[in-house]
C-alpha cells in the first residue's frame, strides 16, 4: 500500500548521497516537501533534479554538521517558513578510522563524535519544538549494529552509534505522551561510500542498495505509525525492543 505524505515537511541530513539521498527521494515521491541537508552542494543539486523529475519539491540547505550554530538556526528558519516539521530523518554520519582504540588520533575521534553524536543532539534540540507542532511528528535516527557488536578496531564508530541510540531512546521516553514517534534504524550492510571505506575488498553487488533502505524507512514516518522508542532492524524487517544486559 502506498504511503501518502502530501503536505508533510520532511528534514533529511546527509541527503547528498547514499541512504540520505534515496530517503529524500522516496519522501518526495510520497508527496512530502523535503528539506535536504548535506555538505556537498553538487550532490544536493543532483538530488533536487531527481526530485523535480518525479514531480516533487525540495529546499536545499548546504552546511557542515560541525557548524553547530547553523544547526541551531535551522530550526528557526523552518519555523519562519513552515511553522512546523512533520518528519526528521537524522541520517548523516561518518566512519572515522578502523584502528585500535589506542591508535586513533584525538582529532579523528573528536570529529566522529561531533558529527555522529553532538550534531544529532543539537539537531534534536533545534527541531523538537517543530516536530511537536505537527499532528503526527515522526523521527528516524540512523544507527548501526556496531552499536551493539562493538567489534575490535571499530571503537569510535561503535561508541558514537551507541550514544546516538541512547539519545533516541531517551528522547522517545520523554515524548511518549505526545504525538511524536521516534525510531532508531539499523540498515545493515548497504552499498554506500562508508561501507566501501570500512570493507574495501567487498563486492558491492553482494549488499543491498540504499534505495531498499529508503523504502523501509517510509512506513516509519507515516501518520498511522504508532510505535516509539524501538529499533528497526533492516535484516529482520521488524521492530525490536531494547532490553537490559543479561
* Alpha carbon gyration radius: 17 Å
Task: Catalogue the unreliable spans.
Answer: none
Structural class by helix and strand composition: alpha/beta
Kindly report how far apart the N and C termini lie.
Answer: 39 Å
What is the typical, i.e. mean, pLDDT? 95
Name the shape in a single word: globular
According to DSSP, the number of beta strands is 8
Largest sheet strand order: 3-2-1-4-5-6-7-8
Total helix count? Answer: 8
Write structural notes for this entry.
Helix 1 runs parallel beside helix 2, helix 1 packs across helix 8 and helix 3 packs parallel to helix 4. The mean pLDDT is 95. The chain has 8 helices and 8 strands, in the order βαβαβαβαβααβααββ. With 246 residues, the chain is of the alpha/beta class. The protein has an 8-stranded mixed β-sheet, sandwiched between helices.
SSE blueprint and pairings:
Blueprint (H helix, E strand, L loop, with lengths): L8 E5 L4 H12 L3 E6 L2 H13 L3 E6 L5 H15 L4 E4 L15 H28 L4 E5 L3 H4 L5 H20 L6 E6 L6 H6 L11 H8 L12 E4 L4 E3 L6
Parallel strand pairs: 1-2, 1-4, 2-3, 4-5, 5-6, 6-7
Antiparallel strand pairs: 7-8
Helix pairs in contact: 1-2, 1-8, 3-4, 4-6
Question: What's the short version?
Answer:
By secondary structure, the protein is α/β, with parallel strands linked by helices. The chain has 8 helices and 8 strands, in the order βαβαβαβαβααβααββ. It is 43% helix and 16% strand.
Amino acid at each position: 500500500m502506498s504511503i501518502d505524505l502530501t503536505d508533510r515537511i520532511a528534514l533529511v541530513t546527509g541527503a547528498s548521497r547514499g541512504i540520505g539521498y534515496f530517503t529524500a527521494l522516496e519522501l518526495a515521491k510520497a508527496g512530502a516537501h523535503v528539506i535536504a541537508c548535506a555538505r556537498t552542494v553538487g550532490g544536493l543539486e543532483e538530488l533536487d533534479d531527481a526530485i523535480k523529475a518525479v514531480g516533487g519539491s525540495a529546499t536545499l540547505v548546504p552546511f557542515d554538521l560541525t557548524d553547530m550554530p547553523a544547526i541551531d538556526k535551522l530550526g528557526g528558519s523552518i519555523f519562519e517558513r513552515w511553522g512546523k516539521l512533520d518528519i526528521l530523518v537524522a541520517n548523516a554520519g561518518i566512519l572515522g578510522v578502523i584502528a585500535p582504540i589506542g591508535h586513533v588520533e584525538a582529532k579523528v575521534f573528536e570529529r566522529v563524535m561531533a558529527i555522529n553524536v553532538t550534531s544529532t543532539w543539537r539537531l534534536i534540540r533545534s527541531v523538537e519544538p517543530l516536530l511537536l507542532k505537527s499532528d503526527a511528528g515522526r523521527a528516524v535516527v540512523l544507527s548501526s549494529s556496531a552499536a551493539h557488536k562493538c567489534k575490535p578496531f571499530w571503537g569510535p564508530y561503535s561508541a558514537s552509534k551507541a550514544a546516538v541510540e541512547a539519545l533516541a531512546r531517551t528522547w522517545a521516553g520523554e515524548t511518549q505522551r505526545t504525538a511524536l514517534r521516534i525510531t532508531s534504524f539499523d540498515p545493515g550492510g548497504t552499498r554506500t561510500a562508508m561501507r566501501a571505506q570500512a570493507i574495501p575488498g567487498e563486492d558491492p553487488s553482494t549488499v543491498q542498495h540504499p534505495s531498499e533502505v529508503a523504502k523501509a524507512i517510509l512506513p516509519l514516518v507515516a501518520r498511522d505509525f504508532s510505535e516509539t522508542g524501538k529499533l528497526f532492524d533492516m535484516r529482520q524487517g521488524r521492530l525490536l525492543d531494547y532490553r537490559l544486559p543479561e
